[in-house]
Structure formats: C-alpha cells, structure tokens
C-alpha cells in the first residue's frame, strides 16, 4: 500500500476499486468515501499531464501545477475512513469484477472482488514523430487548446499533427492567434478544399517532413523542415493520437467506440453490471480537468445509488436521465 492507513489497507475487499488517480478518479473517490463506502484507489503514478507546468480552467484552482492538484486530491481523499491508495498496475478486470493488481517497485500482487469498479485511467498519447518534440511538450507546445490557448494568444503559433481533423483544429486555434502555420509532417491529412478554406482564414500549410523543433536554451524559436528551412514559431499545439488505457478490460464485454474509448450511459455506467467509466477514457470531448472532475462526482452518485439498491434488493432511482438505459458515445 502507498499513502494509506494500515486499517484501510487490511480491511479486505473494498466496496469500490477505482483504477486511475487523475481528476475523475480522485473526485469519484472523495465523493464515495463521503458516502461511507470503502474505496481503493489504484494507479501507477505516471500521469499523462506530468510535463505540464500549470493546469487551467478549474474553478478556484486555475494555474495550479497538475502534480500538486493530484497531491491535494489524494490527501483529501485519504483523510476519510475507508479510503486507501495503492501504487500498482491493474493487470485485469474480469466480467465478475475480480480485479488483479500487479505490484510496482517491489509491492505485492493482489486480487480483489469489489462490488463496483470504476475505470478512470484516461488516455495515453502518441505524439507526431518529431525527434525532439517532447523537449518542448508541456512548455511551448501543448495538446489541449481549451487548457492552454489563452496563454498562447497573439503568438506566432504552430499546429503539428497527422490526423484527419487537423484543419478543424487549426480554425479553433486561430481564434487565439491569427498567425498560425499548420505542419502536416508529410502526412496527406489536409485536403485541397480544406487548404483553400484555411488560406481564406489566413492559415498557411507546410506539408514537408519536420526535422526537429528549433530552439535556444529550451525556448522554442521555430520548426525546422527536412529541407533545412526554419519556419519561425514561438509556441503551438500538437495533435496526438489518443490511446485509451483499457487493455485490462479484455475479458469483459464493455462496449467501445471506434477509437477504443469506453461507451457509457448518462450515469457513466458501462453495459457490464458493476463496471463504470469516467474521465478521458470515455467517448466524449472536451478533455479538461474540470469536466473529468465533474464526471467523477456524477459517477460516484451512480455507484452509490446502485450499491444502495443492491443492498435492499431493488433499484433506487436517480434523476431521470440517469436511468434511461441508453448508451452515449
């Protein structure tokens, strides 16, 4: 166990296992222990947003470092009876909700059978293949327009990506800065019609392969193309491929969308009884901390009502849109 009290660690199977300790998982965990459920929070402590210096758009916490946000959330969660945290990797969740956990850094393996499992693992990202891009990622370059657009307003910006939605993202970024160049890194992802549309908006396309991000003392100064030409840029955005971290669910029948993200109903229930999902791992946009934390609160209420209903042999009704039975994606 990590960051937990011995009594919580040794209490046997918890009511709920939460996989992932980002905003969605922490928010759900806090609300569930306040509802007097025992909760084990499991994560590997390798958050996707670790390179980012500041998190934005969270009411009351705008500008907080993401790792500090996680630390505060975990501290507040663990202050309640029934709360426990384990640094480990969930190897599998079976259809009967058996959770197999592989210990990390010498920690023991565990197998648990909770009454409910919440998947809040978020996404990993595959960045465009540019050799030194990660050296600037989280400082000069970002992936979340809603999170970091304000800080980049008015600068000469780059948009680097190889996905089919690149033109739409370019138009969104242009709201913050009229000086925008789109770099496709050699991928044929912007059509001729899209290029004309972007040109009408004052946005230029560079289709050559990218050699590297140019910079001095970790300050971005441009994008160097394979020809050797440098296009001067001060900052920008990248469009990763988003990869849901849900391999441990392969033995369940939880529905996924075309991108592999988990499909849920309005109460964040999957189509597997007792299995829930919230945060970036679900099929929705935008991917913001405030949205994920809100989803954590909503799914906590769903889990709480479902556990109460099961304990009395029935079903408790939440707000009407919690129980319409439809999946959203």
TrEMBL record:
Domain (FAD/NAD(P)-binding): residue spans on this chain: 15-296
Keyword terms of this UniProt record: Flavoprotein, Oxidoreductase
Keyword set includes Hydrolase: no
Signal listed as a keyword: no
InterPro entries reported in the protein's UniProt record: FAD/NAD-bd_sf, FAD/NAD-binding_dom, Ferredoxin-NADP_redctase_2
Annotated catalysed reactions: [thioredoxin]-dithiol + NADP(+) = [thioredoxin]-disulfide + NADPH + H(+)
Domain of life: Bacteria
Transmembrane parts of this sequence: none
Name of the protein in question: NAD(P)/FAD-dependent oxidoreductase
